[in-house]
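User: Run a structure prediction on this.
Assistant: Running it now.
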Amino acid sequence: MDGVGGPTSPRRAAVTLGVCLALGLGAGVAVTVSAEPDASASAVAGMVEDNLGAGAAGSATAAGEPVTRKSAPPPPRAATDDPDPTADPASGLLDERPEVREKLSGRLLVARGSRPAPAAGTGRGTVWRVQVAVEKGLPVDRQVFARAVLDTLNDPRGWNGADGSTFAWTDSDRYDVRVVLASPGTTDELCLPLDTIGELSCGVEGTAVLNFRRWATGSRAWENIRRYRQYLVNHEVGHVIGHRHDLCAGKGEHATVMVQQTTTTSGCVPEPWPAPGAR
């Protein structure tokens, strides 16, 4: 019998050598995989990406952790075609036909700004400090509205031409006259004990309250809404500085600014100015 330590045949030697090489290659591969797992995972990920695209490679894992890929940034938002509303310089309105809501919060926001009174034309009148406020929620630019009010009050045809009064705009609480633009419901509250029925304005206790319904829609008694707004400011501020109502002098006569001219002019020609002939 052949012993273990005896000579081997060439065929058996070849088989033995093949087995050793196979075992050696297998061991070498095993060592490589265990020593460099990240490289192997990277190679797998590369293969996935090459065969399935970059999106699929993002789902591959390395050393048990997900491979995170940055997503493309979102496309920029398209610019809107609607510009910011521009206030009407004669009224402060942000819309030509604004919605008139019956009642808002009642919170009054002061228009920030100031302007000295112009030199008095007659030199004999009072300088009135005017604060202007707008109810929160009204579609009105407060500063533009305030400038429109002061432009009306200090017009040469205004109270300066009638009694020498001039008006300085202030945003402090040290004021003589307050002009407030408010929703119909808030106007009714501020004007108590007068009954403004959601339609009218008032001048009471140092405050001229202008009803937003009238400011936005005007009056059927007037053809020109801008002139009506000038009347509204001059009439209600007139009450605050001491002027009482007048009566229409007769059909076809020019009204004075203190004639009530919102619901009707009683046959008089509408007039927005205290001193219409002044220049």
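Residues 88-279 form a domain with the Collagenase (Catalytic Domain) fold (CATH 3.40.390).
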